[in-house]
Amino acid sequence: MPELPEVETTRRGIAPHISGQRIRRVVIRQPRLRWPIPDDLPQLLKGRKLLSVARRGKYLLLVFHHGTLIMHLGMSGSLRIVEADAAVQKHDHFELQLSNGSQLRLRDPRRFGAVLWTGQAVTDHPLLAALGPEPLDEAFDGDYLHDCGKNRRSSIKQLIMDGKTVVGVGNIYACESLFRAAIHPTRPCNRISIQRYRTLAEEIREVLAEAVTQGGTTLRDFLNGDGKPGYFAQSLRVYGRAGEPCPGCGNPIRNKTLAQRSTFYCPTCQH
Ligand SMILES: [Zn+2]
């Protein structure tokens, strides 16, 4: 599943090719994604200039003067830039044809992605209005995280994966940041000191920033490539490494299911 760094990598990959272009034509091949693609999009966007590409959480925001196209990659979606004559492939459900002759195509085999339109302020859209701060913004820090968690008895892992607390900390990055902060994933939120919350907030920012930086090396793939930014497996210390030695103490990494998600941790280093 694309997580925040993959979405940010996608944004950086496509933005230079589509910002400032006018929409020549919108093609909807399969409208039934997670929600139906609005059928008036072709009329709404035809001839309009795409001003910029922004991101909020895992939503990509294609900004126009008269509104915003909201895109989500779901479980399996990817975006790529192709030439006008590039053959349409299976699962290519949506396409923006641009005035420079290239096209932005959404491929999504499992169709959990989304393409939606709002003519209102995008921050008020129901999908975006309740989102917590961006982990890389200044509003997100240990004191904020401590305020969110100090009265909750649920696990710290659930708190940081809740998009109302902070956006974009998916399962992989939750496991990695808790390992780096030496906090056990099942520890109750109300039993963690503010100092440890500060360490955790720093590690969340660090692990996501590193992943975004590494994602930058795959940018060329957005041009006529498969559009799939790679996962950053080489830098993961615990995620997917059950049974392997912990990089901190050498004891085996454990894997247990917590809130239906595979959770990787070191029972010695994390407490
Ligand atoms: Zn360890």
From TrEMBL:
Q: What does this protein do?
A: Involved in base excision repair of DNA damaged by oxidation or by mutagenic agents. Acts as DNA glycosylase that recognizes and removes damaged bases. Has a preference for oxidized purines, such as 7,8-dihydro-8-oxoguanine (8-oxoG). Has AP (apurinic/apyrimidinic) lyase activity and introduces nicks in the DNA strand. Cleaves the DNA backbone by beta-delta elimination to generate a single-strand break at the site of the removed base with both 3'- and 5'-phosphates.
Alphabetical UniProt keywords: DNA damage, DNA repair, DNA-binding, Glycosidase, Hydrolase, Lyase, Metal-binding, Multifunctional enzyme, Zinc, Zinc-finger
GO MF, one annotated term: damaged DNA binding
- Gene3D superfamilies reported for this sequence: 1.10.8.50, MutM-like, N-terminal
Under catalytic activity, the entry for this protein gives: 2'-deoxyribonucleotide-(2'-deoxyribose 5'-phosphate)-2'-deoxyribonucleotide-DNA = a 3'-end 2'-deoxyribonucleotide-(2,3-dehydro-2,3-deoxyribose 5'-phosphate)-DNA + a 5'-end 5'-phospho-2'-deoxyribonucleoside-DNA + H(+); Hydrolysis of DNA containing ring-opened 7-methylguanine residues, releasing 2,6-diamino-4-hydroxy-5-(N-methyl)formamidopyrimidine
PANTHER family to which the protein is assigned, alphabetical: FORMAMIDOPYRIMIDINE-DNA GLYCOSYLASE (PTHR22993)
Protein name as annotated: Formamidopyrimidine-DNA glycosylase
Subunit structure comment from the entry = Monomer.
Tell me which residues make up the FPG-type domain: 237-271
Annotated TM spans: none
Which GO biological process categories is it annotated with? Answer: base-excision repair
Which residues are the active-site ones? 2 (schiff-base intermediate with dna), 3 (proton donor), 58 (proton donor), 261 (proton donor)
Residues at which DNA binds? 91, 110, 152
| Similarity field | Belongs to the FPG family.
| Domain named Formamidopyrimidine-DNA glycosylase catalytic: residues | 2-113
The protein's required cofactor(s) are namely: Zn(2+)
Q: What does the note under cofactor report? A: Binds 1 zinc ion per subunit.
